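Input protein
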Amino acid sequence: MKKKLVSLILAAAMLGTLIGCGSDSAGTGTSGAADSAGSTADSGAETAGALEVPENPDDWPVIAVQSLSYDMPDEAKVEEALNEYLVSINAGAKVDLIGINFGDLATQMTLMLSDNQNPLDIFCWRFYSNVDSCVKNEQCISLEPYKDVYPDLWEMYPDKVLKTQQVSGIQYAVPSVDSYATYEVYALRKEIAEELGIVDRDGERITIDELTQIMKDAKAIHPEFSYMVNTNDEPVIGINSLGNPNWLGVLLNQGVGTTEIVNLYETQEWRDFCYLMKDWNEAGLQLDDPLNNERTITQYNNGVAAGCYLGGYSADYIKALISYSPYEPVEFQLTDLVGTSSSVLGGWMVSTVCKNPDAAMKILYLMATDEVVARYMILGIEGHNYTVDENGIARFPEGVDASNATWNMNGPWYYPNQCLSLPLEVEMSTYYTDMLDAPNHAKFSEAMGFIFDSAPVYDQMAACTTVVAEYRDALLYGLVDVDSYLEKFNEELKAAGIDEIIAEEQKQFDAWLAAQ
């Protein structure tokens, strides 16, 4: 049962988690959202229900499930073990794990989600698309009819998180379990922090002015390094972009406690930030030639930068995430623990080409709720692909590491419920229990789940996007005179129609809030 896409590249996938990159799962909309959502929901409601299980497992449907393990030697073994377990619990369906290809993901996924002969039954929109687009492209079915069939599934999630996987109030995806909220830290190489005498401040909350001074002090003793990789960090800037990477209408304070959509580029907050970036650039803190240089954690790992932004739900978690780095960090917290739509990093769907959606939904339910199913998919076979130490940490077998493993175990965050797995090769035994507890301590944006339909202002969006591309990065990296450049920037944004965009966003947002 081997159906493959092409090859797997995971390094780039991790960067979005580690470096604040301003992306949002919601995306922007196009016309016809309500009609598309309604028709898909109706078609699903006519046939959905609890799975009827044939007595003979040979008669069970085989559900094709997207997997991170492309072309791994143990695919057949893991599939066999997983399916034996599914038979033992009388699940009523078996699984065919489908390796994915990050290098050609968009093309291959689009083809498989329209293939009636060899359908991909269960898939994740992460790195491929977003909930809104999958619905409008009629690639997924409504999961509303399954709320009564699997009530304990939906009870696992905060209401705000479920809303991020809805369109027009209809549930289309099962969220990937995560902390649903992150905060940003500044990570400085430990040996430099020791020279500065600030190692004992590890984990301390600091202001942006204190961060500036730390970087300048570090630069004074080690001028060979840069100390800032990427200033395009939404939490540090303090905005919820509503899914628009060009920030054409945002909520300040990351959307916590505010429902007023504003033009960031004409605020005092943005002007002050631009002056700060100018200061950082003139002090030599930023990367050389930032507009033409890779601005990722790679620059920290390869020794070009001695500091960078990182994000996660706790200091220990962030350190565990980058334990592979040759440089141990000291971390300084910069923002609150906040959840926005972009904090929900994935969602799992049943495709419209699926021939047995009831069976697919049963498998998806088990992926999210059954520990054994989750661990087979995430870790493979215990005793063969991994061992478990006395602290409950999964370890590679002797002589095995990520480079020669026969099952890909490095992407637990991709699956429906990583918290049913075990932490892999870290020293943090509370890795997943703390993750589950994080939402209890988080603040959430008022716009969690809001999706803006940009169709009424399509022309204005296109024009403003062009203006942003011309002006914003130069301001973000302190390369130009702030006053004159910002004045031209705002004049051109006004002429391109940013006020109309924000008025339409506010109108839709107010209507969405009223419907909650």
